[in-house]
Design brief:
single chain, 268 residues, alpha+beta, five-stranded mixed sheet, 6 helices, 17 strands
């Protein structure tokens, strides 16, 4: 299948506090012609699964944490080439989702560099570990996430979307990061989520949401947001895939991205 290579027409700059660290950080996205890459302290990391160094609570690429929200926005716009310059060791939380990144890329504009093609995957990729399962096949951009909490509220949420820039912008991009209220002591002790507040994140209590949500099913939509960003490490356009994920998180997502990257062939 052929797809268009796209980069930003003008630079896009984002400033804020690191999602987990709470430290000030600046990110500048510049036009590129050599894939997607992040640079920090002079080190450039191509955004591929092989360069992921940690998947605990976020996706870390080389020395740069929490890349998944920006990668998700790149995927929705079909950005294939860009240079991301990061002044700190983590991307900013901004709105706790990917809408700020998505809107910033929209404002910067997109330039088509040419075409590329991808062949595969020829068979459905299945990844299973414990109660996690992810299936990826060639398709038309139909993605489904099944968020299961067992005895915990909200117990079960399912979300399905036919991916396109407009659908993503309206149904996925605003969905913020979250935590369970009974985990907050552990989160604080670990020094996580320091760049978030009640407007950029939400808590799930024993019987309902602790603060206001943007969607009744915001948890599963945010899990979808993360899944899209992590799987885009494969380089395969999201609209060329059908995906079904059950209880998947960053670790499984990146493992699937690696399997997908190994199963396809790109050509110019």
């Amino acid at each position: 299948m052929n797809f268009r290579r796209k980069t930003l027409t003008h630079p896009a700059v984002f400033e804020g506090l690191g999602l987990h660290s709470g430290e000030p950080v600046t990110v500048e996205i510049k036009a590129g012609e050599h894939g997607l890459a992040f640079t920090h302290n002079g080190e450039r990391f191509e955004s591929i699964p092989e360069n992921v160094t940690d998947t605990a609570r976020c996706t870390k690429l080389g020395t740069i944490s929490t890349i998944e929200h920006l990668m998700s926005a790149f995927a929705a716009h079909g950005v294939t080439d860009a240079e991301v310059m990061v002044s700190g060791g983590e991307l900013p939380a901004l709105d706790g989702a990917s809408k700020a990144y998505f809107d910033g890329i929209s404002a910067a504009g997109l330039t088509v560099l040419g075409e590329r093609s991808v062949a595969g995957p020829s068979e459905t990729i299945v990844h299973e570990e414990d109660d996690v399962r992810v299936e990826v096949s060639s398709g038309s951009g139909v993605w489904r996430f099944e968020f299961e909490c067992g005895d915990r509220w909200p117990h079960s949420q399912h979300f399905e979307i036919s991916l396109g820039a407009r659908a993503y912008a309206e149904e996925v991009a605003p969905a913020r990061t979250f935590a369970f209220e009974d985990e907050m002591e552990m989160v604080r002790e670990a020094g996580l989520g320091q760049g978030l507040d009640e407007t950029t994140a939400f808590l799930i209590g024993s019987y309902g949401y602790v603060n206001e949500t943007k969607f009744e099913d915001e948890p599963v939509r945010h899990k979808m947001l993360d899944l899209i960003g992590d799987l885009y490490l494969s380089g395969v356009p999201v609209e060329l895939l059908n995906v079904v994920a059950l209880r998947s998180g960053h670790t499984a997502n990146v493992a699937v991205a690696q399997k997908l990257r190994d199963a396809v062939v790109f050509s110019d």
